[in-house]
Amino acid sequence: MSLSAPVAGLEIGTSRTVIAIGEGRDDGRLEVAALGSIPSSGVRKSQIIEMTQARYSIESVLKKLEEQFGYAIGHACLAISGPQVRTTLMNTQWQLERGFVHDDDIAEINARAEETNLPQERTQLELHPISYGLDELVDIASPKGMNGNLLKLRSLCIHGATQRINDARTAANAAKLEITETCFSGTCAANAVLSPQDKRDGALVIDLGGGSTTFTAWTDGRLAYAGVLGVGGDHVTNDIHTAFSISTAQAEQIKTTAASAIVMAEDSGMRVAVPSSMPGFKAASISRRALNTVVNARMQELFTVIRSKIDDADLLHKLNGGVILTGGGAALGNVVRLASSVFGCGVRLGAIIPDIQGLDKVAGVPPFACATIVGLLLRAAAADSRPSFMDSFTGIFKGIFRK
Fold it and tell me: Domain coordinates of the chain in residue numbers?
């Protein structure tokens, strides 16, 4: 991987604000050189609701990176998530002049597909070609050299609310961090845990965040479906808080240390201690079976909704590579077993691909919880190493980092 300088990524999540720095290695891999995070402020469902607090969170992470790792950062790519993100299937056509498909025809229809006519209040994040068509033929992987008259292209456009994206940019700029590119968090997470073979076999990546859950389905090596649900780990915490009349902090601690997404027979008669909110006071307890019933109901509903959407898109039977869970919510007890029962296929926690190295040295959380931010670094590194990018922006990263 040829990089002129380190690259950086910013994720403003509901639970945590994270910045990571990556450097290219001599063997072509990406080294995660630094990663800093703090609990987010002023963010709900991955969207900023209080600008000053969000800016302060970013400033705090920047300060942490400089003090702990010696990096001063001026530019970064930004991951976008939350229910503001939507997808639209786009259909583009191009009349062939030669009677067969030439490279120029493919380039032309791809360029026309990029000219999406989204409303002003929507901003395109990514555009992914799904398949080509030629006259009456459909689902063509590569039409080059084929005879026909009308070339077609079906693409998936991922777009976000312009104002919400601008809010994130504004918060970053106020913290003296310039955003060079915006990317969809769901594809970032997938690119961090899926190999090219996984994408060809067919796989569903579910990124379980604090305020929202993103999911992407891949078949035949391409993105076939993407979505965001405004439900995440914070909703499980709130369910526990409401069901047992305990504080949010107590509910969060119980969720992370004692809760299970599966209700098991051995839960009957067992109790879970509620952390005392005041020193010296005797801790209360709640039924483990009741706790896990509450957690199971929320997670079962979440996975069932995702399964329904993937099934409606006629993709469920194509997931030969199974389901991969990422994000902080994937640490919930027995969540893999629950997902397996809902989707009826193999489910595993996301393992970071070999193209990314060094995460174990800088992250204090499981690798699958960092999938979005390290996938964002891959995206930033790919952009930085593209000749066209460097021709247009020679030296844009020069002097931005110092160590």
Answer: 86-161, 195-350
Taking only the tens place, the pLDDT of each residue in 180-239 is 999 999 999 999 999 999 999 999 999 999 999 999 999 999 999 999 999 999 999 999
User: 195-350: which CATH number, 3.40.50.12160, 3.30.420.40, 1.10.1740.10, 3.10.180.10?
Assistant: 3.30.420.40
What are 65-70's contacts with CB under 8 Å, separation 24+?
Answer: 65/19, 65/21, 65/34, 65/36, 68/34, 68/36, 69/21, 69/33, 69/34, 69/36, 69/362, 69/403, 70/402, 70/403
Asked if residue 41 lies in contact with residue 50, where contact means CB atoms within 8 angstroms, the answer is yes
Fold of 86-161: Dna Ligase; domain 1 (3.30.1490)
The pTM is what? 0.90
Handedness of CA 16, 172, 227, 351 (dihedral sign): negative
What is the spatial distance between Cα 80 and Cα 137, in angstroms, rounded to a whole number? 36
Place of tokens 């796989």: 203
